[in-house]
Structure formats: C-alpha cells, structure tokens
Amino acid sequence: MEKIRFASPHKSQFFPTLKKRVDAYFTENDKTRYANKTMVVKTVVLLSAYILPFFAILIFTPPFWVSMLLWLVMGAGISGIGMSIMHDANHGAFSNNPVVNKWLGYTINLAGAGVTNWKLQHNILHHTYTNVANLDEDIKDRGVIKLSPHEKTGPLHRFQWLYAFFFYGILTLYWVLLKDFIQYVHFIKSGVNRQTRAENTEMLLGLILMKVIYLSIFFAIPVFVFHLPFLEILAGFLLMHFAAGLVLTVIFQLAHSVEGTEHPLPNDAGVIEKDWAIHQLETTVNFSPRNKWLSWYIGGLNFQIEHHLFPKICHVHYPRIAPIVKKTAAEFGLTYLENKSFASALRSHIASLKRFGAPSFNEAIV
C-alpha cells in the first residue's frame, strides 16, 4: 500500500478550484459543515427504529408474524444507523467535537461490528484506493463474487448476478461472527493496522467482549430472562441481519460496481497516473439524486461523488454542494457519473455482475 501513489503528469486545478468553491458556499451561507437540526432528528428516529421494536418484542411478546415485522424494522433501523450516523461520525463529519464523533461512531457496535477495522477498511483503503484491485477491500475477491475486471473469472461467476444478493444479505451476520477477526489478522500482517502489540491486544479483547455482550443481549436476555422461544428469536435475528446486510451492501455497490466506472491499476513504478480527486470522479457514481426520501434514509450515499471528495462534510449538505461539483467538473472537461434513478443504478450493477462474471471476460492479474 505504501508504494502506491497518485501522480498525474499534468497537474489539474480541478480539486483546488472545487474546494475553494465549496468552502465559499459554507462561508457565504453561514452554514456549518457538520450536523444540523435535520441530522439530529434523523439520529433520534433511526436509533428509535432499532431500539424500540426490540423492547416491544421483549415486553409485549407479540404474535410470531408481528415479531418478524418488528425484526424487519430493526434491520431497516440498523442499516439506517450505519449509513447515516455511524458513517458520518467515523469520518469526523457528524460534529466538530471529536468526542461526539467518537461515541456516535461506536453505534457500529449495535450491528455487532468493530469500529477500528471498519475505519481501516473504509476510511483508508476504500476512500484512498477506490476500485483499485487488491487494495480496495469493498471489491476484494473472496472467491464467490467478482467485482473487479482484474480478478480471475471462476466457473460460478457466470451466475453471480443471480446469487450475489443472497451473499449481500449475510454480510452483517458474517461481520458479527467472522469478518472482524479475519480482518484483525489480515490488517496486522499487511501493515494497514499500525497499532502497537499492546493496542492490538486491547483491541482484540474489546472485540471479543463486545460480541459476547451483543449476542447475550439478543439471545441470553430474551430466552433466559423473558422466556421467549429460542427458535423465534433466532429467526428474527437472522431476518434482521439479512435485511440490514442486503440494504447496506446494495447501496454501497450502486456507487462503484456499476457500468461506466474505472478500475485503474498502478504502473510498474506503483503510480496511478491520475490526480486523486479525478480518480474519485472516475470510480464513483451518484444515483437517484432527486429522491429526497431515499437520500434521507441512506445517509446521502446516493451522492457518493460528493462524499468521496469531501468525506468530512456531513451528508445532509451533499444535495446543495452537488451542483457545484457537477459544474466544476464540466468546466474541467471531466465526466460526472450519475444514474438518474435507483432502478437504473440497480440494473447497471446487475449488468456489471454479468459482464465481470462472463466466461469470456478475462483480464486477470498474472
């Protein structure tokens, strides 16, 4: 990772110009870059959508079908928390107070996942090396789903456009049970995790403790304290995670694994011959920009271009700065990638899955 860098032979003034214009927008309109009242209300609503249904299940012991509906609401709630609250906080974009960001960043624990690994995977690897094979963890080849043209095509990949969404649905469950521990080892070996041995020991113990508490809350308390049927709790827990995993993964894939995005590779000197900001434009796609309800729920992740260029700006401001980004890109002759609707973005993602998985598609790294 240390050997890979961005260096264009022709330095562009695109990002310096864009940054000045975005800075001017906040200054001239006397607006904060961080959360506003809308964001605070959203935070309360999404946390309530996750926590209150669980209390309802425990206290009122509703019929099975009502219980499953409540677990579904919890799945929608935790994915909303992940896309809006946790995501902004761990980018330092929720508040100008680092303590607020730190504690709201821990809302990732509500999904049974660890915060340090997420920051390493997302903030460092994904945001720096977007769509770069072997560096961007979000497109990493795990043998089942191929999201990069530079990975070997296996016999199953031709069907990945059919089965991918099942694996998307088990993402958060995989995270709870295995992913954190696999990443813990991998990030230390690869040098992405640069903490001391003592810090990593503390991190590992914290991960284990967090997951024990998380699973105890969802299984031990309902079964042994409230005497609810174990199989009903298990069914609801799995349903919640499948809903959350499906929503989270699909939303993130629609921004990068769609038709039109680039998947650049470094040259022999370890250089990607692009300015970093232009690289972000070429590897990122917005979708459904006019859908205010979708934008509210998914934390502005339909404005991924703006998020990748300005990750420390709270997502509630993206719809306002998007026209500035789009206009500036046009002035510099750069393409601003966008799918007008959620449906068109989803179709584009499925088309990418088909293209990457086709037996004739072979651009494998040797």
From TrEMBL:
<feature type="transmembrane region" description="Helical">
    <location>
        <begin position="68"/>
        <end position="86"/>
    </location>
</feature>
<feature type="domain" description="Fatty acid desaturase">
    <location>
        <begin position="64"/>
        <end position="337"/>
    </location>
</feature>
<dbReference type="Pfam" id="PF00487">
    <property type="entry name" value="FA_desaturase"/>
</dbReference>
<protein>
    <submittedName>
        <fullName>Linoleoyl-CoA desaturase</fullName>
        <ecNumber>1.14.19.3</ecNumber>
    </submittedName>
</protein>
<feature type="transmembrane region" description="Helical">
    <location>
        <begin position="161"/>
        <end position="182"/>
    </location>
</feature>
<feature type="transmembrane region" description="Helical">
    <location>
        <begin position="233"/>
        <end position="255"/>
    </location>
</feature>
<feature type="transmembrane region" description="Helical">
    <location>
        <begin position="203"/>
        <end position="227"/>
    </location>
</feature>
<keyword id="KW-0472">Membrane</keyword>
<dbReference type="InterPro" id="IPR012171">
    <property type="entry name" value="Fatty_acid_desaturase"/>
</dbReference>
<dbReference type="GO" id="GO:0016213">
    <property type="term" value="F:acyl-CoA 6-desaturase activity"/>
</dbReference>
<feature type="transmembrane region" description="Helical">
    <location>
        <begin position="39"/>
        <end position="61"/>
    </location>
</feature>
<dbReference type="InterPro" id="IPR005804">
    <property type="entry name" value="FA_desaturase_dom"/>
</dbReference>
<keyword id="KW-0812">Transmembrane</keyword>
<dbReference type="GO" id="GO:0016020">
    <property type="term" value="C:membrane"/>
</dbReference>
<dbReference type="GO" id="GO:0008610">
    <property type="term" value="P:lipid biosynthetic process"/>
</dbReference>
<keyword id="KW-0560">Oxidoreductase</keyword>
<keyword id="KW-1133">Transmembrane helix</keyword>
